[in-house]
Design goal:
The complex is a heterodimer.
Chain A lengths: L1 H20 L10 E12 L12 E15 L3 E12 L21 E11 L3 E8 L18 E2 L7 E2 L2 E10 L3 E8 L28 E4 L9 E10 L2 E11 L4 E3 L6 E4 L2 E13 L2 E12 L7 E13 L6 E13 L15 H4 L3 E11 L2 E10 L7 E12 L2 E11 L14 E9 L1
Parallel strand pairs in A: 10-14
Antiparallel strand pairs in A: 1-2, 1-23, 2-3, 3-4, 4-5, 5-8, 6-7, 8-9, 9-11, 11-12, 12-15, 13-14, 15-16, 16-17, 17-18, 18-19, 19-20, 20-21, 21-22, 22-23
Chain B lengths: L1 H50 L3 E11 L5 E12 L5 E9 L7 E5 L7 E6 L4 E4 L27 E11 L2 E10 L11 E7 L5 E7 L5 E14 L2 E11 L4 E11 L11 H4 L4
Antiparallel strand pairs in B: 1-2, 1-13, 2-3, 3-4, 4-5, 5-6, 7-8, 8-9, 9-10, 10-11, 11-12, 12-13
The chains are: A mainly beta, B alpha+beta.
Keywords (chain A): Signal
Protein name (chain A): Porin
Keywords (chain B): Lipoprotein, Signal
């Protein structure tokens, strides 16, 4: 606890020092962005998996983003985040470089890295968040960063300590290489939380689960290589990830225990995007060559479109995004007994459609309709979000939304069936 | 009988003369229109050629004026370069305020109007291609569309010289630009009237009409400065949406004219870089 407090204090002191040292310069504070948001969720039902159900929960988040040019060729970015919520899902201070705690930290360094920059070559070192793939929602190769599923409908990426470079070859192609020395798992609740993935009747299974966390040694180093090319009306990327899946798969290797294991995989992926008329097309094919036969190799593919138009009545801008994800087993797993198919989260949303419509209602507001539809059964399995964003000025956003979940038996969404909610959020930028 | 034959003969002669005259007039109209098209094309090409400048870096402020009287301010920097083939490369990056900071647009002019455009959104940390038909959408909430920010697609428009007219006391060529059938599905404009100053070939004003030929926007420039040779720029520009009653005022804060700009500045790598 003392260590946690000391470490969290460290980041804040560092920021203060930087601000004071450069305070005499009039543009010092121009490098600091402050993003404050407060949100209230109102649950419409009592979720059975949350024994301490509260109808309302509140979240306050403070992001400080500090960037600084150093000696013309270096660039520093620090993004500490302070987050508090009424459900106490955030507590404590900054822990190790790897964030393997089940509980979200109240004070965390979301990103913090130093980068050497030139026109043709960049090199960085530090904690960072990456984004791979061309799609808005389904990106099979976007697996560098684990995710925080504390709020299953608003997942956030967790920064990972990494080093790497980005090299340009001419003006139309580049090669990125990243090394992630420490494994970081995704934050997923098993029981006693409104977003717990184990159904209440299986809660006792949690006692049987033994977590097998990859150790911090050389054989668990993860690596990414990505070659990108930008041609006339075609963007292509070839990606290789030597990866440990940050989402566990639950295996019953014996009758008496269930292991929570993290799949080691070599992912080979190709993604591309192009345009035709009003439509932007994008897609990805990713082959997961897994190192242990018990998991089974598989292939995932995504096809998607972005379509822009204007409504016929008010001539306001309207954008549609549609994506479809599916997967195919390419290897029969043997000696495998899964607790639930739904517990392989990487594959849970195969055969799913993602749809979003974004309407610019006025100069200051946007209405968004989002639907994640699981096509795997004949029943209705949907996650629907309706969101209204009001942006009265450059420093503020007001958001109102409603999330509705329909989850049928045999799917991950089954235990989230009663987790509908409405919410309101206010966000300030400085 | 004799008179009937004479009458018929005269009628036939009149018809023939009428037909020949109509054909000649039509031919003359066609020739005249073609001459106007050729002249319009020549003027536009001269204007485009004069607008080329090896390398430019511009720091500017945009003020968005809304119909309800509200205003918002954007700060940007723009890098522009012409390659040896005369193709324009352009990188626009927002430097403030914080909610749009690092949003960037990269435009690479291609052959026959097939430009490549990518938009980088910091919140997604991804760049997205802008489809040809989506270029009619507003750029970052301003009165400029993506189409307005790309080079003049000379091969995809017809340019008709219509007349001379004065704008602010300056004689101008008035050019009517209409999209070709190939371009028509992808443009937001039915036509444009471009007023090009006769002394320096600077397009001092452009009027955009929608597909119902109703005036949609006006683009005007002031405070012209000569940045070298025959090239002029405007330190103040106003894009006004007449129908929505909004306008975007663009004021140049600083203009830098380096000898050249690195081609690597106009890449995805630079587009997605955050500052």
């Amino acid at each position: 606890m003392v260590n946690h407090a000391m470490r969290s204090l460290f980041v804040l002191v560092l920021l203060c020092i930087m601000t004071v040292c450069y305070g005499s310069q009039s543009d010092a504070l121009d490098n600091l962005e402050v993003d404050v948001s407060g949100r209230i969720n109102g649950a419409t039902h009592s979720p059975p998996q949350d024994s301490e159900y509260k109808q309302f929960e509140g979240v306050i988040r403070l992001d400080l983003i500090y960037t600084m040019d150093l000696l013309d060729y270096f660039w520093l970015k620090l993004n500490p985040r302070l987050q508090f919520d009424s459900e106490h899902t955030s507590e404590g201070g900054i822990d190790d470089i790897t964030d393997n705690e089940d509980t979200r930290r109240s004070i965390d360094l979301r990103e913090g890295f130093l980068e050497y920059r030139s026109r043709r070559f960049d090199y960085f070192l530090g904690k960072r968040i990456f984004s791979l793939g061309k799609a808005d929602y389904f990106n099979p190769s976007d697996k560098i960063n684990p995710k925080d599923y504390t709020d299953f409908l608003d997942t956030t990426k967790i920064g990972v300590f990494a080093t790497g470079f980005e090299a340009q070859f001419g003006t139309r192609s580049s090669l990125d290489a990243y090394l992630i020395p420490f494994f970081t798992k995704s934050r997923v609740y098993l029981t006693d939380h409104r977003w717990a993935i184990l159904p209440p009747e299986s809660a006792s299974l949690a006692d049987l689960i033994q977590e097998d966390l990859p150790s911090k040694d050389g054989e668990n180093i993860q690596a990414v290589f990505r070659y990108k090319a930008y041609l006339t009306n075609l963007d292509v990327a070839l990606v290789y990830l030597r990866n440990i899946d940050d989402i566990p798969v639950f295996l019953a290797r014996t009758q008496e225990s269930i292991s929570q294991e993290y799949r080691r995989e070599n992912i080979f992926s190709v993604n591309a995007s192009t345009t035709y008329g009003n439509v932007e097309f994008h897609g990805e094919i990713a082959y997961y060559n897994v190192e242990e036969e018990v998991f089974g190799a598989f292939l995932q593919y995504v096809v998607g479109i972005n379509y822009f138009t204007q409504d016929r009545f008010f001539q306001k801008e309207l954008e549609f995004i549609g994506e479809y994800l599916n997967g195919v087993d390419t290897q029969d797993p043997n000696d495998q007994v899964l607790v639930e198919e739904a517990f392989d989260l990487t594959r849970t949303f195969e055969n799913s459609l993602f749809f979003r419509a974004e309407y610019s209602a006025t100069d200051f507001s946007t209405i968004t309709f989002t639907d994640l539809f699981l096509c795997s059964t004949t029943e209705l399995n949907n996650v629907v979000r309706l969101e209204y964003i009001y942006n009265p000025n450059d420093q503020m956003n007001v958001k109102l939304g409603a999330d509705m979940i329909w989850g049928e038996n045999g799917t991950l969404l089954e235990q989230f069936e009663d987790n509908d909610r409405i919410w309101a959020e206010v966000e300030f930028f400085f | 009988m004799k008179y009937r034959r004479q009458t018929i003969g005269v009628l036939l002669l009149v018809c023939m003369l009428g037909g020949v005259t109509t054909t000649l007039w039509a031919e003359q109209d066609h020739v005249q229109i073609q001459e106007q098209l050729d002249k319009g094309r020549t003027i536009i090409e001269e204007a485009e050629q004069r607008a080329e400048f090896d390398a430019e870096q511009t720091i500017l402020t945009m003020t968005l004026h809304y119909a309800n009287g509200k205003q918002r301010t954007r700060h940007l920097e723009i890098f522009t370069k012409y390659d040896e083939d005369g193709n324009r490369k352009n990188l626009i990056r927002f430097t403030g305020p914080n909610d749009v900071k690092n949003t960037a647009l990269l435009t690479l002019e291609g052959e026959k109007g097939n430009d490549d455009q990518w938009l980088y959104l910091p919140i997604l940390r991804k760049s997205k291609r802008i489809a040809a038909g989506a270029k009619t959408r507003s750029f970052a909430g301003t009165d400029y569309t993506f189409e307005d920010l790309r080079p003049e697609a000379l091969d995809r428009h017809d340019y008709l010289y219509t007349e001379d007219q004065e704008i602010d006391g300056q004689p101008c060529f008035v050019i009517l630009a209409t999209p070709t059938p190939e371009e028509e599905p992808y443009t937001g404009y039915g036509k444009r009237l471009i007023f090009i100053r006769q002394d320096n070939y600077f397009p001092i004003e452009t009027r955009y009409y929608d597909k119902n030929e109703t005036l949609l926007k006006k683009y005007t420039h002031a405070e012209l400065i000569n940045i070298g040779g025959k090239t002029w720029r405007a330190d103040t520009s106003v894009m006004e949406n007449v129908q929505e009653k909004t306008k975007t005022v663009r004021v140049v804060d600083e203009r830098l004219l380096p000898d050249t700009l690195d081609d690597m500045l106009f890449t995805q790598h630079e587009l997605t870089r955050e500052y």
